[in-house]
Amino acid sequence: MARIFIDNTPYEVKEGKNLLEACLQLGLDLPYFCWHPSLGSVGACRQCAIKSFKDEDDKKGRIVMSCMEPVRDNMRISVNDSEATSFREHVIGWLMTNHPHDCAVCDEGGSCHLQDMTVMTGHSYRDYRFTKRTYHNQDLGPFLNHEMNRCIQCYRCVRFYKDYAGGKDLNVFAAHNHVYFGRQQNGTLESEFSGNLAEVCPTGVFTDKTLKSHYTRKWDMTYAPSVCQGCSLGCNISAGERYGSLRQIVNRYNGEVNGYFLCDRGRYGYEFVNSSQRIVHPAIRPHHNGSASREYIIGEVAARLKNGKAIGIGSPRASLESNFTLRQLVGAEHFYLGMSDTDHDHTSLALKILHGGPVRTPSLHEAETADMVLILGEDLTNTAPMLALAVRQAVRQVPMNEAMQQVHLAAWQDAAVREAMQEAKGPLFILHTFPTSLDELATGIHRDAPDNLARIAFAISRALGAPVNGSLELGETEQALVNDITAALKAAKRPLIIAGYGTGCDHMMKAAANISWALLQGGGQPMLSLTLPECNSLGLEMLGGHRFDSALAALKNGEADTLVVLENDLYRRADKHVIDELFSYAKDVILVDHLYNQTAENATVLLPAGTFAEADGTIVNNEGRAQRYYQVYVPKGEVQESWKWFLQIGEKAGVQRLHGLHNLDDVVWAMTTAIPALAPIAKLAPNADFRMAGQKIPREPHRYSGRTAMLANESVNEPRPPEDEDTPLSFTMEGYRGEAPAPLIPFFWAPGWNSPQAVNKFQSEIGGHLHGGDPGKRLLEPHVNGSIPFFTEVPQPYLSMPGHLHVMPLYSIFGSEELSMYTKGIAQRAQDFFVIYMNPEDIDEWNITPGIWVNFHIEGHAYLMVAVPNHWLPRGIAAMNAGLPKSQIIDLPQCIRFSGSEVTSTF
Amino acid sequence: MLTTSEKEQIEKEIRQVPVKKAACIEALKIVQEHRRWVSDEGIRDVADILEMSPEEVDSVATFYNLIFRQPVGRHIILLCDSISCYVMGYPALHRQLVQLLGIQYGQTTPDGRFTLLPNPCLGTCDHAPALMVDHDLYRDLAPAELESVLAKYT
Amino acid sequence: MERPLTQHITFPPLGLRQYEAVGGYQAARKAIRHMEPKDVTALVKEANMRGRGGAGFSTGMKWSFVPMDMPGPKYLICNADEMEPGTFKDRWLLEGNPHQLIEGMIVSAYAIQATESFVFLRWAYKTAAEEIRKAIAEAYDAGYLGKNILGTDYSLEMHLHTGVGRYMCGEETALLNSLEGKRATPRAKPPFPHVSGLFGRPTIVNNVETLSYIPHIVNHGAAWFQSLSRTADGGTKIYGVSGRVNKPGAWELPMGVTMRELIEEHAGGMQNGYRFRGVLPGGASTDFLVEEHMDVKMDFTGVAAAGSRLGTGTMVVLDDHTCPVGFVHNLERFFAQESCGFCTPCREGLPWTEKLLWALELGEGKEEDLAVLAAHATLLGPGNTFCALAPGAMEPLQSALKYFRDDFEQHIRQKKCPYHS
Ligand SMILES: Cc1cc2nc3c(=O)[nH]c(=O)nc-3n(C[C@H](O)[C@H](O)[C@H](O)COP(=O)(O)O)c2cc1C
Ligand code: SF4
Ligand code: FES
After folding, report:
1. Could you tell me which residues come within 8 angstroms of residue A741 by beta carbon, excluding any fewer than 6 positions away?
2. Which tens digits make up the pLDDT trace of A692-743?
3. Residue A27 domain boundaries
4. Which of B43, B63, B65 sits opposite A184 (nearest CB)?
5. CATH of the domain at A491
6. What is the mean pLDDT of chain C?
7. What is the CATH number of domain C324-414?
8. Average pLDDT of chain A to the nearest whole number
9. How many whole angstroms from A236 Cα to the centroid of ligand 2?
10. What is the pTM for the complete model shown?
11. Nearest CA in chain B to C84
């Protein structure tokens, strides 16, 4: 700690930080633009000027940029000095010479950092009397608007996009007061993290295009703290609603998880909530299609459950609460995991490794601090996007620390550190069948069939001391790679090993576990991160249930005749013919879900379920971190949380297991009691009766406007605002105005700080944890005592079978996830579903003409696809874009047989 | 596409520097020498050989005033408009050039012969006013001499 | 009077053999064969050689900051970007005696144990480029450059880089970015280039004139260097005068000659019909000096005491037929145009002053404009902006407001430029 004097008052602050951070940390309001806690300082905007004095006798002092000055013991500075305040005001004056006065029509208005800083500096009078320069704007694709006239040249956009996220197609052009930020030509921004520009940009140059299509100001939005459902990482989000539709997703800072950023799937994948395909009314087919009352339906379902032999199918994209209540409704012995068997195999393996193994799985933030990374069979950008962003920061660790020591720099001196490091990168090795976008950072990459890659990984683990059976003869290059990676792993202080579901090959995760365990055994401090298919895969697995394929067996052999399906399109869980058969055996299919899909077409009873935006619930991310998301608004129609449907049905049917459960707290209590592994969830967030100063926490900013008038076209009476019985949040603007506990913060807003940058007022250290700790509770901690359960079986080398193809899934951030594909912009960026990528030699050998329809056979079922040659695929291995709507081949990897030359030239 | 000789020259520059990107300005100069200006295609060509994105290359190209991102004439007139030449009467040279060529700063004569550009101090202030045509420096110029200077360039 | 820097300047310049015949490359031999690197640095420090690029920082001191034990390459760079309006001294040295510069670079590179060196030459210096290229090739052939120079284990590569415009390239850290193939925006200091410079390696940047002096200091010693000067700042200096004087030109003279000597003797006084009003003593980014400063000694300390800077030592004379407002407008337009666009005050402030000055020239000036101009002169001062470009740009403006205030006011009162009828 250092003692510094700010305007003659002594303060204790952390040494090594810069003065701007120190001042913000102390709660002082000091304006800035170009500095960003994750991007560091470059000193471009000159907005954070303060006075610095040599010593007590120095009365004159000199202006310095607080973001560029390290904290030193005994230093004397002034924030309030008149020369400094006047300079800060002039900086705004300069920025305003060209900034349009268009706040009224600007999407940023009301949550604009530039507005905040303008007010903060007191700049209000325009001295400049000349015309403003203007720019042409660009079409940057479906996610972002571009309005260059509003640019204040802080360089944050390029620094985030290029330097932080590794994007290539955004830059700064020209010089002097003509600098321009954009692409070389019109076109979609390619980075998967482009949406962050809307938050990183302190003004309205880059704004959210999906928000624009149903624009609402920040102060008019109803928000709730929420958790992204886009992948297994569980980034924290704030979701905003107005007039019954979800308008926007913004980052919700969590120091342990996503920090300041989100990926584009997470930010933009929300439009399904507003889809015209939503199920809003309960229906019983064939009699009451969309017109039955809630009471009638509940009675009807209760009766059918009583009379039939019901089984429940849970969902990895539904909350623990919904899955648990379904499990209680049908009984644990009749509860099936609603994930494909491949996904289940992976998730259960992951759980076994994380729970039964001795190595800790890191949070996203911890992953950033790794000094060596080994990725096994995963294209992170497409399966766990924010982890890819974390790896981008991790590979900087080694050269950055070196540079910092040699040149005596602090990490926040961003430009200087980057210069000193040059292109140097820390060790990163990637073993994957396909190219990945992190390859450009890698020290070494190796491409082969998954089994062969796993053999390399097993060999590494053996070299590190893992007991592995069987022969591991490797080629010369492979053996050299094993040696390199082993050496790098040994040399690293905090190596991170990543594997997951990317190749569909189990051995990859086993080998990853072996490697990390062997390292630990050797005295290292490894981290092990495993990606999982969906936002609550791990939660569902912890809850437990039967395999999906046994559901079909249960129906077939008459053990069951009624299906209760929770938030699940079963056609995404197994190939079409399997699900068709499943439904053919079911007397009743009761579906509780959001959207009309193929499964809904087969349902006899439809119950409209709340999406994440209309529901409270808990999900568990790949780190084993349970996180609560809250209902944003009360939906129209009969939509309600799935768990509420089950409680109501259970009550009607007199199900003892659900007796006495009425609200969220009840369900959480019952669940944590029934399943001890989930116990920490009880303390995840305050209960519904929690009050601050006797009040609830408002979901609406207190400047929320038009409440008395917004429904005037429907009624002249102002309707009573809905009550929230499940949480301490209210659906109104009234309530406690101070800071809420971290898990309950609907939006970041503080006096004078209307933009998302207000978050600095909520952190116990700038860029660190939120006050009182970041939201979420880890359910899995490494199991330390006992012997290490190494995986000893080595896979056989891959042998391509003549006439067969091993088809692997190719995941894509845009396309592979079910719900986000309802967002037009995301669908626009997705791939074709009927393409099969093949090695060109296979294509030749099989005498296929690339680009035309070809028939393939899987277990007697024919599929039409177009073969596209791909040079990086090994012989005998093919790949298909996974998870796309209309795909018929679901459970990848699979073995496909080519059935001769049945080629139809047109479709 | 880069010509063989452009490629050879650029590759030679690449060998001189520790990272490919560092040859960016040299590569732009080479392309400009061959094609007189750097088109969008030129930017992509440089980007390809240096393994950069077009954005990265154009960011550099558009920063420097002597990389031409628009077509220029066969000859470039750089008229010094800085202080010593100002004192010594460059505005008169400028007026005369505008009249002789019928173009303003930044423009090219319709026959593609000349492009007229202002340029900061040419470092020959004791012989102001001065201008350059292509690689040739003209000093102590009087407006009346301009016609014969321009006549040398076809 | 000794003129070590310019005595062997010829056009075309001396070739390698001729240069050797007048004592060339003796300093290189002496330094590399018989001196320790640190002794070369100590000698230059002792000579009190102050950099001729404009800032006047002690050259030996700068070299002594290089972390000599840091492994990996180090670089020496000659700043031959000379784009400061009114400055034309380096061109003389570059075109007239390239071997002297190259020898200076070899000795300096040896002192900091650089393995590679660059001449960063501005685009417009075509003749200089030819001569330097030729001279470097000759030096390689003669074994003064390349591997194992003069049979020792010291090796040095030298490259010529020609720029593609932009005044910013002269700022040493922007120059580094440009040499790395990037946009020429400046870098924050610290870290200074001597620790993290070109490609993140220790790098020394020196001006052409500074480096050209080094062989002479090595040959003749620190005391000799001191003795050349009339003042405490050692050596001779290349001074130049441009504007409406009878004999504009550049001359090598003892450090500390007076302004009067320069203008009246060497430059032959004002042209007939023109009266002296003021002068920028060292290029476009220095404060005006006026009649009362005629006897100021032109060295770093003397000019600073008079309220300006020696800068590059090449002065531009303002005469009574030239409008001071137009004069300053010309300068500010230059600076606004050459701002790199990185920091706010410079990027937005300079065009503002340029527009105000132009409005004054057009007769559209307003009373309050002078206050805005004056405010900018302080607001864009040192420390407030990212690099020294904008503070430099404000020097002529602030001093013009002081010495020629009446001219500014007349523009406003008469609603026109009084110098244009
Ligand atoms: C905007 C700007 C332009 C400059 N241009 C030049 C230049 O053209 N030549 C030069 O030698 N120094 C120039 N300098 C000074 C250099 O930054 C640096 O101080 C100098 O090259 C150091 O050399 P010296 O120590 O030999 O004086 C410039 C500085 C600034 C701020
Ligand atoms: S990484 Fe996953 S959880 Fe995070 S924002 Fe992207 S899609 Fe959502
Ligand atoms: S925030 Fe400090 S200069 Fe921009």
Report:
1. A685, A686, A690, A772
2. 999 999 999 999 998 888 888 888 888 889 999 999 999 999 999 999 999 9
3. 2-94
4. B43
5. 3.40.228
6. 97
7. 1.20.1440.230
8. 94
9. 9
10. 0.96
11. B121
